[in-house]
Amino acid sequence: MEYHVDDQKLEASTFLSLVSQVWPGDYDLQKTQAALHKTQNITAYDGRTLVGCLRLLTDGCFFGTITELLVLPEYQHQGVGSQLLQLAKANTTTLLYFGAQPGLEPFYEKNGCQRSLTSFQINVEASSSAE
C-alpha cells in the first residue's frame, strides 16, 4: 500500500470512481475537481488503484475538519482507514472535528478519536425560504 499526503495529482475522475463504490451519489466532475483543490487529500493506492482517501479542510490555525474518509469495501478492515486517520493527525496543527456515519463510531474510538460536539447542518434552500 502506498500513501500520499496532500496528493496534488488526485483527479476528480479517479476520486469519483472510489466514491461511487463507497458513497453513491450524483457528483459533478468539475465541482468535484474544484473541491479537491481546496482540501488536503491523503490517499492510499494499491498499485495504480485508489483504494482510500481522506479529505481534510483546515484554516491551519484553529479548526480542521475531515470532510470524507472513504475506503473501498474490499479494503476495509485491513488498516487503510486507520492509517489515513493517523496521517491526518500527523499532518495537521489543529483539532479535527468531523461527523461519523451511524454505526462507525467504534472504528473512530478504536483509532483514538473522542466523541465531541453534536453536529448540525444548514440546508441552504431551507434557510433562505424561512425568512
UniProtKB/TrEMBL annotation:
<dbReference type="GO" id="GO:0016747">
    <property type="term" value="F:acyltransferase activity, transferring groups other than amino-acyl groups"/>
</dbReference>
<dbReference type="Pfam" id="PF13508">
    <property type="entry name" value="Acetyltransf_7"/>
</dbReference>
<protein>
    <submittedName>
        <fullName>GNAT family N-acetyltransferase</fullName>
    </submittedName>
</protein>
<dbReference type="InterPro" id="IPR000182">
    <property type="entry name" value="GNAT_dom"/>
</dbReference>
<dbReference type="InterPro" id="IPR016181">
    <property type="entry name" value="Acyl_CoA_acyltransferase"/>
</dbReference>
<feature type="domain" description="N-acetyltransferase">
    <location>
        <begin position="1"/>
        <end position="131"/>
    </location>
</feature>
